[in-house]
# Entry
Amino acid sequence: MEKLVRIVGGGLAGCEAAYQLARRGASVELLEMRPHRMTEAHASGNFGELVCSNSLRSNSLSAPAGLLKEEMRKLDSLVIRVAETHRVPAGSALAVDRELFARALTAAIEALPTVRVIRQEVQQIPSGIVILATGPLTSPALSQQLASLLGAEHLYFYDAISPIVTAESIDMSVAFRASRYDRDGDDYLNLPLTRERYYQFIDALVAAQRVPTHSFERFVPFEGCMPIEEMADRGKDTLAFGPMRAVGLIDQRTGKRPYAVIQLRQENREKTLYNLVGFQTKMTYPEQRRVFAMIPGLENAEFVRLGSLHRNTFIDSPLHLMPTLQWRQRETLFFTGQMTGVEGYIESAAMGLLAGMNAARLLAGQPLRVPPATTALGALLRYITDPQRKKFQPMNANFGLLPPLLEHLRGKAKKEAMAQRAVTDMDVWVKT
# Structure
């Protein structure tokens, strides 16, 4: 086997993977097409350019992003170290000066003696050990090859994400379990709306502030990706005959069919998370929280992920990836970063960290490793690589992915206990 690892893509995941390989003495070629070929979103050729926001989210251990960052510190993350060096005031969040951060990350990678940076577009996956970290805006040529390898139906170019809430924050005195015409037993939670509540919700939906659409994000031909507010623009009854239709549903407590319903589908095996079926949206995050709080049963909902709809390239990871991030059909090919179906800067970098560690172990002939499921990193990894998961959608780090505690706790106490367990288990894993 060639004693070299090639990494395609110089984003957060690619940089983190390169550093993890280099610190273990591996030779690396990092291939990045920018600035020779730019994407529709990037403005420079610097590595790790942050396009959407300058925030890496909370630093608090009682927040999932904060817990994940703490685990990455224990694993010597380059991305976290550079971010902390170039942070700007943002309260309890870790935010950075974007330009300084990208410059410093680029300089850090270029200074690694075993890393060779090659500025060229990769149109075909190279031979040997490869880490594919091309991100949400993978070039058309490489996307075409991926589609031929994985099957076009397992490669997604438009990321339509529905909001996810914690089960314990749903008002179960309002919800009832049923599926339309009992076809799927009682797999769905249903939140019924009267005619009056439905039209109040529609009015708020139509008036809500929306995230502007970029020039490279066009959804008109993709009806399956249509944001709910755009469906509501077509007419006040559109949703009542679409994702909120109540046909085939009877509320057993009233014996009647509601005027409209919001259906929630179980998101994980532990039944701690539920997603709002068909509720992809381009509303701003504050507006989503305000408008969705008008839904009966969700007045006090805790959202672990809000809805979105944007241009993205990601694979059906549960079908194609092992927990080590290797492709099931080729052990020398790793997928990492946002392409694996994780959401967020930190999550992408964390996947790069793990891919780099395991690629180094493969190169050295050592067993590959997976972090404990009780850690934020391990739980997120388990979510995206669970072969039993169907209708896969991207996910960010959240406490709903972690296994339940032995003791019954709620709210902040529960999150703090989960975080302490994760930190302890990560310490043990790092030592072994």
